[in-house]
Amino acid sequence: MGFKCGIIGLPNVGKSTLFNALTESNKAEAANYPFATIEPNVGRVAVPDDRLDVLGKIGKSEKIIPSYMDFVDIAGLVKGASQGEGLGNKFLGHIREVDAIAHVVRCFNDENITHVSNTIDPLNDIETINTELQLADIETLETKKNSLEKKSKQGDKEILNQISIIEKIIENLNDFNSLQNNDFTEEENEFVKSLNIIAIKPMLYICNVDEESVQNGNEMSKRVSEYAHKKNHNTVIVSASIESQIAELEDNDEKLEMIKEMGLSETTLSKVIKSGYNLLNLINYFTCGPKETRSWTIDKNTLAPQAAGKIHTDFEKGFIRAETIAYQDFIEFNGESGCRDAGKLRQEGKDYVVKNGDVMHFLFNV
After folding, report:
1. Residues in Cβ contact with 287 at an 8 Å cutoff, skipping those fewer than 6 apart
2. If we measure between CA atoms, which residue out of 7, 108, 60 comes closest to residue 337?
3. What are 140-156's pLDDT values in tens digits?
4. DSSP one-letter string for 86-129
5. Is the pTM of this model over 0.85?
6. Alpha-carbon distance 79 to 169, whole Å?
């Protein structure tokens, strides 16, 4: 399992250029006019993780299999999208299908690249998009509420409670308040999840700046960062033009050299994925052996049987125990045999909460 991240924003803010850089492809048409992208482009990329190669060498593995993340390049939204402007309803439907949203915001001036409102104002751009997302959610929720009210005439307590939840959400959205999953009980969250509300999806703001501002940002990106902080969202500073140049290089060493020359410590892909993992509370555990070393993505606080189920449902059904080694111990004692001799291989049961970097072997019986 990886996760699906939708890239959204106004037209001409650098979404498709960024998508191409992230996926090292030219799938998305990057053009200086609105709606260059109509159907969403999807690119699957490997999650960068230096630990995999280290484990693979120690395990003398034939194959190394990373976790993957899907990026979805969704066409530019415009004011009035919730009412169907600019193919809006179709695009909003695509956004509902992703796990997290990366909102690209233009934080650079360039007379050669048009802006839909002819003014570069990132906070105004954010407000335009957020308003359309909230209006779309309200319309969907009102439809769902009307449907439930017809059924509620029989006095079903569960349906009445669901109507109450929807009314609470609509009230928040009408007042432009941020919604959080912790606004609801665990049981209520299951119903909220089924509503597929855009406004409650984890949001990351990607500030697309000029090349000179890629290290420290600029005044526009700082305003976005301050806004995001107030809303409990993360921000990442990137330069889509730099990333597209890096993506064109075929040699990995050349890419690393260019990244260093630009004064950067990591690629945009790495930044976005790290932020995405934090947004969704995801971690990785590993399996390591002669055939393959593999990364598995799970939610934080996942118990051992459910983590085993990511490999195969039989592993979860017939779970007995998990032989577990912490990543650092695996490296320090040079693999499973050394860890076993040093007493670093632990036998963990059904209540064990898997930690980021655990190297695991599951015993099961079906």
Report:
1. 293, 294, 296, 311, 359, 360, 361
2. 60
3. 899 899 989 888 777 78
4. GGHHHHHHHHHT-SEEEEEEEE---TTS--TTSS--HHHHHHHH
5. no
6. 22
